[in-house]
């Protein structure tokens, strides 16, 4: 294949109910850096129904062009409809790189597209760089439950595609004066292929706080032990204006819901302060939180691996520390 | 109804440790298990078998020792098992893996294909959707519930971050299932006894009727150029103190960082 025919960095800008998702801005910000290195453009693909009102915001984060595919077929995400839409963009413009969020949508859409295009796809990347010599995309991702990092390239196929977990790439500062254009893109759908019918979409109030966007996380592990223990963590979180999260052990035990789980199979977080309370720090957990700005760990076991990443490590019983700290902070913050 | 279930043998990644001196993965002694999401998928298939009568065939691509998870599937209630194993399949990325499995599926009769959402050693969630595309059938991923009307219509609950979707289809499809959605049955005692009397079919690449260039390392667009254990950041201060002092230290740190 003639690789010189492929250029520009494309981002699938995920929206839900018309709201552009944070991961789309994160990816556009990263795409800008990659495209500047290559001297190429950033194009955001915004697909949906009635989605154009916020299209310009993608320009503010770094897109040169927003391709808006506004079609009733795309009102809600269904695999085949979205695959046809993005496939027609890719085959028309031949991008060099295409990025997707590693969400339930991106992780469903991207592999379907990769197989249709016959190209490679690297999942859940935590780092994207352009190689100095070949100008190709180097995609780094965790493997073996976060125990190993692998750098992957796609040397002989185009586009180079990857999914990136939400919260991993920092967002740029938006610039409302950035120049760029929103262009309509029409897709001729092959409706005969729409074999799966969407009956309904149900939004569950999962008490969903997005822990990935919290500035302060009060996170508990095995050392917290039980629901009552987490109520104490909640009291601390309330005082300091944070959210409660947890390690996998507490989710597996049914004490905490999955959307509060930090780590390789949960969420990646990078808050200003991460309290690791009674968390030993399995490598899978560290993979999800070690980018936090400040990590404060409290654990009875002075050999707990969590101390290897903590800025402040306290060897003490968290059940004694947490209530005292909560009371003290009430006075400090008042 | 005939159901094809794709399963994979994986190292139990929760048991993997890093050698503190060499900083490499310690794989010795790590148990090899049936991937949890795949086991969930097998359970979905066996429930359809219980209710409607189905023939369940399990297939895995891997090393000869993956025979073990096929025996486990027999003991849970699978009817047939195929082990796809060949040096030519080695080093396959997700595209080449999905190609091999899709070509294998083309040699078989089935009404429905079930796989796990993702495997715990790679966590890619790609092989199922890619296989569905190669076969030209729809996929539904993140499946948390599955119902069949006994005639031709399937109703599927697909989970997402904000809740779930209910989807319907008739005809062939590929589903990727969540381990958290079902509790896989235990192997039955008689099942275990019989599992070793049953025949696992061994297939090589020649059975797939596809050019070797599409398989294994040769058929893989992605190449691993480097792998390394993660460098953890430098540890900060560690204090063994009582609770009162601990509070002082934490408050001081929060002030230093301008949090309070």
Summarize the structure.
The complex is a heterodimer of chains A (334) and B (260). With 334 residues, chain A is α/β, with parallel strands linked by helices.
How do the helices and strands line up, and which of them pair or pack?
The complex is a heterodimer of chains A (334) and B (260).
Chain A: E1 9-12, E2 15-16, E3 19-20, H1 22-38, E4 42-48, H2 55-60, E5 65-70, H3 79-93, E6 97-101, H4 106-117, E7 121-125, E8 127-130, E9 137-143, E10 148-153, E11 160-164, E12 181-184, E13 197-203, E14 216-220, H5 227-240, E15 243-246, H6 248-252, E16 273-277, H7 283-289, E17 294-299, E18 312-315, H8 318-333
Helix pairs in contact in A: 3-4, 5-8
Chain B: E1 2-6, E2 9-11, E3 17-18, E4 25-26, E5 32-34, H1 36-52, E6 55-61, H2 67-76, E7 80-84, H3 94-106, E8 112-116, H4 127-135, E9 139-148, E10 153-160, E11 163-170, E12 174-177, H5 189-195, E13 200-203, E14 223-228, E15 237-240, H6 243-256
Parallel strand pairs in B: 1-6, 1-8, 6-7, 7-13, 8-12, 9-12
Antiparallel strand pairs in B: 2-5, 3-4, 9-10, 10-11
Helix pairs in contact in B: 2-5, 3-4
């Amino acid at each position: 294949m003639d690789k010189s025919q492929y250029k520009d960095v494309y981002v699938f800008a995920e929206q839900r109910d018309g709201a552009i998702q944070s991961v789309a801005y994160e990816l556009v910000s990263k795409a800008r850096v990659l495209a500047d290195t290559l001297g190429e453009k950033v194009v955001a693909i915004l697909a949906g129904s009635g989605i154009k009102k916020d299209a310009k915001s993608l320009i503010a984060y770094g897109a040169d062009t927003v391709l808006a595919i506004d079609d009733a077929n795309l009102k809600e995400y269904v695999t085949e409809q979205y695959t046809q839409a993005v496939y027609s963009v890719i085959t028309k413009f031949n991008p060099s790189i295409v990025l997707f969020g590693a969400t339930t949508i991106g992780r469903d859409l991207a592999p379907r597209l990769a197989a249709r295009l016959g190209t490679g796809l690297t999942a859940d990347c935590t780092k994207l760089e352009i190689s100095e010599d070949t100008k190709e995309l180097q995609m780094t991702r965790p493997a073996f439950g976060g125990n190993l990092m692998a750098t992957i390239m796609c040397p002989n196929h185009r586009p180079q595609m990857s999914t990136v977990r939400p919260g991993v790439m920092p967002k740029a500062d938006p610039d409302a004066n950035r120049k760029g254009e929103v262009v309509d893109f029409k897709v001729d759908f092959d409706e005969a292929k729409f074999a799966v019918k969407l009956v309904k979409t149900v939004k569950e109030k999962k008490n969903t706080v997005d822990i990935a966007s919290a500035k302060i996380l009060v996170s508990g592990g095995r050392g917290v032990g039980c629901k009552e223990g987490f109520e104490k963590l909640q009291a601390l979180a309330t005082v300091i204006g944070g959210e409660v999260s947890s390690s996998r052990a507490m989710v597996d035990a049914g004490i905490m819901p999955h959307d509060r789980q930090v780590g390789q199979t949960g969420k990646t977080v990078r808050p200003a302060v991460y309290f690791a309370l009674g968390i030993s720090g399995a490598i899978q957990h560290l993979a999800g939180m070690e980018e936090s700005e400040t990590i404060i760990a409290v654990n009875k076991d002075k050999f707990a691996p969590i101390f290897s990443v903590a800025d402040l490590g306290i060897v003490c019983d968290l059940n004694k520390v947490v209530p005292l700290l909560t009371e003290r902070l009430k006075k400090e913050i008042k | 109804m005939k159901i094809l279930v794709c399963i994979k043998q994986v190292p139990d990644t929760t048991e993997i440790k890093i050698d503190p001196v060499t900083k490499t993965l310690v794989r010795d002694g790590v148990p090899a298990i049936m991937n949890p999401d795949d086991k969930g998928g097998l359970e979905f298939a066996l429930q359809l078998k219980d209710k409607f009568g189905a023939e369940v065939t399990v297939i895995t691509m891997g090393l000869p020792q993956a025979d073990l998870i096929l025996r486990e599937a027999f003991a849970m209630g699978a009817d047939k098992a195929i082990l796809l194993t060949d040096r030519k399949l080695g080093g396959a990325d997700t595209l080449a893996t999905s190609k091999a499995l899709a070509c294998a599926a083309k040699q078989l009769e089935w009404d429905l294909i079930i796989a796990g959402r993702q495997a715990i050693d790679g966590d890619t969630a790609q092989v199922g959707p890619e296989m569905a595309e190669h076969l030209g059938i729809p996929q539904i991923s993140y499946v948390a519930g599955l119902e069949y009307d006994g005639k031709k219509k399937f109703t599927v609950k697909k989970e997402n971050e904000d809740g779930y979707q209910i989807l319907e289809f008739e005809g062939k499809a590929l589903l990727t299932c969540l381990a958290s959605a079902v509790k896989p049955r235990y192997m039955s005692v008689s099942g275990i006894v019989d599992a070793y009397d049953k025949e696992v079919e061994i297939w090589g690449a020649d059975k797939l009727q596809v050019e070797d260039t599409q398989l294994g390392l040769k058929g893989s667009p992605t190449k691993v150029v480097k792998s390394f254990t993660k460098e953890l950041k430098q540890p900060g201060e560690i204090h063994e103190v009582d609770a009162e002092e601990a509070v002082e230290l934490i408050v001081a740190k929060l002030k230093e960082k301008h949090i309070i």
